[in-house]
Amino acid sequence: MFGLALLCGVSVLFVTGLLSYAAYDPDLARINDQTPDKGVLGFYLFTWPTSPYWGYRLSQGVHVTLGIVLIPVLLAKLWSVIPRLFEWPPVRSVGHALERLSLLLLVGGAGFEFATGVLNVQLHYVFPGSFYVLHFYGAWVFIGAFVVHVVFRLRRAVIAVVKGPRAEEQHRARPLATAGPGLVAPRPAEPTMSRRGAVLLVGAGSAALLVVTMGQSIGGWMRRTALLAPHGQDPGSGPNGFQINKTAASVGVRPSDIGPSWRLTVRAGGRKTVLTRDELYALPRRTVELPIACVEGWSTPDQRWGGVRLVDLAALVGVTHDAPRVLVESVQRGGSFGSVVLAANQVRDTRSLLAVEVNGAALSPDHGYPARIVVPNAPGVHHTKWVTRLTFGEPT
Ligand SMILES: Nc1nc2c(c(=O)[nH]1)N[C@H]1C(S)=C(S)[C@@H](COP(=O)(O)O)O[C@H]1N2
Ligand SMILES: [Mo]
To answer: CA-CA distance, 388 to 372, in Å (whole number)?
Structure first.
C-alpha cells in the first residue's frame, strides 16, 4: 500500500517538478538557466504559457505540499523493507545485482530529493551549489531508478494489495515467478502493531503534515496555520502585508538605489528612453489581480497590482507590435534573481505589468519599490523587484 501511494505521489511530484523547471524558461536565455549542460534532460521544454494565471501557484503548491505529506509514507516504506537490506546471498544473478544497484539509486535518490526539497522550503541553503541544479539532476537519477523499481515490483504490489501478502508469497514461490524473497518473515516474532495500525499511524502523520503545511500555499490568514513554514519575517498588515521573499536590505538594495536618483531605462534596438519615478508614475496604469507564487511552495492570494503594461513600455521605444522578449534588470548588485529574461508571450500578455502599486498603495521597499514585474502564471522568481532597466529584444 505504501508503495502504491508513493507510485502515485512521486509521479505527481515528478510532473509538477518538470513543470516548475519549464516555468523558469531555461531555454530562453542563459540567465534563466542554471543547468546549461542539461542536454537531453531538457527535451520536453516548451514555451511557458501565461494562462491560467493561477497555474504555477497550483502546480507548485501541490509539488511542495504533496512532497511534505509523503514523508511519513516514504519513511514507513523504507522501514518496511529494512530486512531486505540484509538478504543473503547479497547477489544471486546479474539481474539481481542490477536490481540492487538500482535500489541504491532509488533510496539514495529519494532521500536526496526529499531532503534538498525540505531544506529549500525551509530556506536552509546549505547546499554545495544551487538548489535548482541539485534538485533537477537528482530528480532524473531518482526517477530512473524509480521506473526500474516499478517495472520489477508493480505486479507483486498489486497482488499483495488485492489478494493479501500470503497470495503474493505463493505467487512468487511459483517456479517462473520473479525471483527474490518477499517481505513476509519466515519466523515472525509477535507483532507489536497491526497492519491496520501501521497504515493508520502513517496516514495520521501525513494528515497532520497536510494540516500544518497547506496554509502556506493558500496564503492570507490561512498562513497562520502553516506551523512548519519558515517564520521570522513578518510582512505586517495593510496593502503590503503579504509574504516577502527577500527584503531590500537582505540583497543589498540601499535606500539611495531606489531614492530620487533612481531611473528606469527602456531600450529596444538603437532606441532608448530614461524615465524618472514621476515620469513613470504619470504613465497610464492598468490594474490586474495576480498572486505571487514562489518555487519554495508559499504563495499569496491574488493581489491587486497597478502599473504600466509591458507592451506600453515597449511602445515608448518604438516597438508597437509583436513585442519581443525582454531583459529585466534590477538595481540589485550580484546575487541570484536580480535579473531575468521574460518571453515574448509574457511581454505581450496585457496583464503583464511593471507594477508601481499594490492593493491601492505604493509598493513598499521590500515588495520592490519603485517598480517591479508581475506576470500571470510565472513563478515568483520572475517577478523581479527594484527594476531599473528593460531591454526589449535582448539577449538574442
Ligand atoms: N531583484 C530581485 N527581485 C526578486 C527577488 C530577488 O531576490 N531579487 N526574489 C524573487 C522571488 S524568488 C520571489 S518569490 C518574489 C517574491 O516577491 P515578494 O517578496 O514581493 O513577495 O520576488 C522575486 N523578485
Ligand atoms: Mo521565490
So the answer is: 9
With a 6 Å cutoff on the Cβ, whether 290 touches ligand 1 is no
Q: How far apart are the CA of 384 and the centre of ligand 1, in A?
A: 6
Is residue 266's pLDDT more than 60? Answer: yes
Collapsed DSSP state (helix, strand, coil) of residue 267? strand
Contact 20, 59 (CB under 8 A): yes
Residues 58 and 197 in one domain: yes
Evaluate whether residue 236 is within a structural domain.
no
140-185 pLDDT, tens digit each: 999 999 999 998 888 888 898 898 877 777 766 554 334 455 566 6
**Same-domain status, 213 and 288:** no
Closest-lying ligand 1 atom to the alpha carbon of residue 253: 1
264 and 160 belong to one structural domain: no
CATH number of 261's domain? 3.90.420.10
Cα–Cα dist 14/145, whole Å? 13
For the CA of 293, the closest atom of ligand 1 is 14
Please work out whether the CB of residue 245 comes within 6 Å of at least one atom of ligand 1.
yes
Our answer on whether the CB atom of 251 is closer than 6 Å to any ligand 1 atom is yes
Ligand 1 site-directed mutation target among 64, 245, 262, most atoms within 8 Å of CB:
245
In a domain, 271, yes or no: yes
Angle at 384 between CA 288 and CA 137, to 5 degrees: 115
Pair (388, 281) in one structural domain = yes
pLDDT for 172 = 64
User: Best substitution site from 332, 336, 358, 381 to test ligand 1's pocket, by max atoms within 8 Å of Cβ?
Assistant: 381
Q: 272 near 314, Cβ under 8 Å?
A: no
From the CB of 382, is ligand 1 less than 6 Å away? no
How much is the pTM?
Answer: 0.93
Q: How confident is the model at residue 28 (pLDDT cuts 50, 70, 90)?
A: very high
- Within a domain: 212: yes
- CB of 375 within 8 A of CB of 50? yes
Q: Does residue 253 share a domain with residue 178? A: no
